[in-house]
Design goal:
Chain lengths: ~375, ~250
């Protein structure tokens, strides 16, 4: 089956080589971080988590969003998703792998990573996050492999896969809920300590994940002719639209609670993000770009104007908007001001971006290879 | 004897239940120990607003601590490592910054780990590299810490530091009786656990010639700390979070 990824056009190999170069650059930057320490990043005593943990959080959402294609297909027997369910599952495998890599590069002592297993601590949410992420990776890996390999052999998917598929549905919800619990259980961080964090995570995940999936399908259709059909795309678009709307609603709820109550520790984080605080306003333009993109996307989606270009544009808007909001604002904004109320500047450094781009490239390479195999297998059958 | 698959599965399930049960029982043991420690020691400290001379450039407490514990002096503020240090009143008591008496609010104060009775940091640690001892001291294992910095996110008091770089070049005179740390681990005040074990008081308390720091067993009604806390008005940092800080500030 994997041999299908080893034959391809010139364009395919060019793309794979470009990704490999970016991965190599990321690896070189990581080696520097490994020898010098996390001092190569823009992190500090006050802003202890940054781009790595933000990206981890965002991609847990992308991974969890696979449930939006798995659930209709398997639970409601929605046949139109026949061609995209596998794509969703494979995207989840790549996204979870990226999440693990983001956690790994954030560790000060990566060689000791096995201590999490040697000294299991059920009172730590990070322990449960490790279990849920690993479990989800395993589930989706097994499901996708079993589905594709039986398709290749021209036989029906074995029955033993079914329980795993059903388990993967609540499991997808759990990975993002536990990820939210990492933050929402901290009494020291009022910006995160909100019961709506897990629902908000899920809502933004079910918008950003399908947005990425639609874009990937559009690319796949252009480059390989693999077409899941307009109905499937339309349904994904509907899911994305409502999830994005709910996500915006949750953000507005947060803003009301913070500003109407007026409690400084709750308010200041939003002020830092949207207008700047104590002269620090590095994230302000980003947050407003995110807001404008979201408004534009929702306007396009609700205007009922059809067309692939509009669909693609709204997906790009939603993905970038939520990438900024969750992949930057949510984690950095939670740590500024610090627990002592101190506003410290955080600016990701070049090595930090290099490592992040390296991990994105690993994820992209995985998706490329997985989708190449899928299209290869399906074009025979 | 041959084992059928069914028998094997039964046996495996039974062992699993047994192991889980044993874990629960040992959990109950921990609860019992915690109850017992109520009758044992609980170390606490009081910082006297009126005697402290940080405002006059005094830094005896932090100098004594840094010498004793090989705390590095890193010039880059982002990478600083601090065990006991000064911060302005408005930072230490962020929620109570509009106190009328300017003699209080203009005075910088000592900050250190609060050695909470229910620490937020130990709960989140994914490896058990930080924990609370029976005597209330919150300890760290620098060989087990994976450097995830979850404890730093959880601590409401900003008491923890991370070694962003190798700290050893920044220690002027290494004290051979205390370990140095490596890059990539978290560290903080240990209430001089190594000195308490020898019956000594913490280095900062000993180093303060103004006697602004009082240290002792909070569970001993005859101790000096209890006497001070009974006679003076004392406040804790953010007690509403339920962490139960063991460091008090005497107004």
């Amino acid at each position: 089956m994997f041999e299908k990824a080893l034959v391809g056009s010139r364009r395919y190999w060019l793309w794979v080589s470009a990704l490999l170069v970016l991965i190599a650059i990321g690896a070189i930057f990581y080696l520097r971080q490994l020898t010098y320490g996390l001092g190569v990043t823009g992190l500090s005593r006050d802003v202890t988590w940054g781009l790595y943990i933000s990206q981890f959080t965002f991609f847990v959402g992308v991974a969890a969003s696979a449930v939006m294609v798995v659930l209709p297909y398997y639970l409601h027997d929605y046949k139109q998703f026949g061609k995209i369910t596998i794509l969703g599952e494979l995207l989840a495998v790549a996204a979870v792998t990226m999440c693990m890599l983001f956690i790994f590069v954030d560790m000060g002592q990566p060689a000791r990573v096995m201590n999490v297993l040697l000294h299991p601590t059920p009172h730590s949410m990070m322990f449960w996050d490790m279990i849920s992420l690993n479990g989800y990776l395993l589930l989706n890996g097994v499901i996708a492999f079993a589905t594709l390999s039986s398709e290749k052999k021209g036989i029906a998917t074995p029955h033993w896969v079914k329980p795993f598929i059903y388990l993967s549905i609540p499991w997808a919800v759990s990975i993002h809920t536990v990820t939210a619990f990492l933050y929402s259980g901290l009494a020291s961080r009022p910006f995160w300590m909100t019961a709506v964090l897990a629902p908000r995570f899920l809502a933004s995940a079910f918008a950003s994940g399908p947005a990425l999936l639609i874009l990937l399908i559009l690319v796949l259709r252009r480059t390989t002719g693999y077409d899941p059909g307009e109905t499937a795309l339309g349904k994904l678009k509907t899911i994305m639209t409502y999830a994005a709307t709910i996500s915006v609603f949750f953000v507005l709820m947060e803003l009301f609670t913070a500003f109407y109550s007026g409690i400084p520790e709750h308010r200041e984080h939003f002020e830092f993000l949207y207008v700047g605080l104590d002269g620090q306003n590095g994230l302000v333009p980003w947050m407003w770009i995110s807001t404008i993109l979201m408004v534009a996307a929702l306007a396009m989606l609700y205007s009922q104007r059809a067309g692939k270009k509009i669909l693609a544009a709204s997906c790009v808007c939603i993905f970038i908007s939520l990438w900024i909001e969750k992949g930057m604002g949510l984690i950095i904004g939670g740590l500024i001001p610090s627990a002592l109320g101190i506003v410290t500047k955080y600016q990701p450094t070049m090595p930090e971006w290099g490592i992040v781009i390296g991990i994105w490239s690993i994820g992209t390479l995985m998706v490329t290879v997985f989708y190449k195999i899928t299209v290869g297998v399906r074009s025979i059958s | 004897m041959t084992i059928t698959r069914k028998q094997f599965l039964k046996f495996a399930a039974a062992s699993l239940v047994g192991a889980a049960g044993a874990k629960l029982v040992s959990g109950a043991e921990v609860v019992k120990q915690a109850a017992a420690s109520k009758n044992g020691k609980r170390w606490a400290m009081a910082v006297d607003f009126q005697k402290c001379r940080w405002d006059q450039g005094c830094n005896q407490c932090s100098a004594a601590c840094n010498r004793a514990h090989n705390v590095p002096d890193i010039p880059d503020k982002a990478h600083e490592v601090k065990w006991i240090w000064k911060e302005k009143y408005q930072t230490v008591f962020r929620q109570q910054s509009e106190v009328v008496n300017p003699a209080l609010t203009s005075h910088p104060l000592s900050l250190l780990c609060n050695h909470c009775s229910s620490p937020a940091c130990t709960k989140v640690c994914p490896t058990g590299a930080t924990w609370k001892q029976e005597d209330g001291v919150v300890m760290m294992d620098w060989h087990r810490c994976i450097g995830c910095r979850y404890c730093m996110a959880a601590c409401p008091y900003g008491s923890r530091s991370f070694n962003f770089v190798d700290p050893r070049p920044y220690v002027a005179n290494i004290n051979p009786d205390f370990p140095t740390r490596t890059k990539g681990v978290v560290e903080k005040c240990n209430f001089c656990n190594e000195r308490l074990a020898k019956g000594q008081i913490p280095a900062c308390v000993e180093g303060c010639s103004e006697r602004a720091l009082t240290f002792g067993d909070q569970n001993d009604p005859a101790s000096e700390i209890r006497r001070v806390l009974a006679s003076r008005y004392a406040i804790q940092r953010q007690p509403e979070l339920g962490t139960g800080p063991s460091v008090y500030y005497l107004i």
